[in-house]
Design a protein that fits this description.
The chain is about 45% helix and about 25% strand. Strands 1-2-3 form a 3-stranded antiparallel beta sheet, covered by helices on one side. β1 and β2 form a beta hairpin. The longest helix has 27 residues.
Length: about 60
């Protein structure tokens, strides 16, 4: 469990969201290969990565 300050938690959550955004780009690249669905959604500390009709997106929890 995280035991740091609220500011540190916010900074780490932002970092996790940035990493999730990079994952979204990679998932879009995989999907563009047309080799099958990588499937649904991933839950991360920075939000939820969801597949949409137009690719992938990161949303807040």
């Amino acid at each position: 469990m995280f035991t740091g300050t609220p500011e540190e938690l916010q900074r780490r959550e932002q970092q996790a969201k940035n990493i999730a955004g990079r994952i979204v780009m990679l998932l879009d690249d995989l999907e563009a290969l047309g080799l099958g669905n990588v499937g649904g959604q991933l839950h991360t500390p920075g939000g939820i990565i969801r597949q949409t009709g137009r690719g992938w997106t990161v949303t807040a929890r």
